[in-house]
Amino acid sequence: MKQVIMSLILFFPMSVLAGNTQIIDIDIEGMSCKFCAYSVKKNLSELPGIEQADVNIDTKKAHIVMQEGQQADVEQIKQKITESGFTPVKVTLSEQ
Questions:
Q1: Which of 41, 62, 81, 94 is an S-S bond match for 88, by CB 3.0 to 4.6 Å?
Q2: Quick check: 81 and 88 in contact, CB under 8 A?
Q3: Any residues with CB less than 8 A from the CB of 93 and at least 6 apart, and which?
């Protein structure tokens, strides 16, 4: 049994086992082109603690992955989207 647990620890990264990577999904209104999505992504990527920001023009959503152990400042993220010229609507928080 001990060997199986050690094998799992070596196989999976600790962030997966710890379950402390915060994920933020935000619906965004007003985006109409790929440049819109690029602009939001670029601005979100500048915020501290964000490991990855993806913005999809088709679904009109931002998917943000925080660095391990970092908590999102949702108001700051929404402000960046607003500064980019768009409206953050629904925010969904989860952990991975």
A1: 81
A2: yes
A3: 22, 23, 24, 72, 74
Length of the chain: 96
End-to-end Cα distance, the chain: 26
Percent of the chain with pLDDT over 70: 80
Class of domain 18-95 (CATH, top level):
alpha beta
Model confidence at 13: pLDDT above 90: no
Q: For residue 53, how many other CB atoms are within 10 A of its CB?
A: 21
- Residue 50 has a CB neighbour count (10 Å cut-off) of 19
pTM over 0.90: no
Name the residue with tokens 């990855």.
52
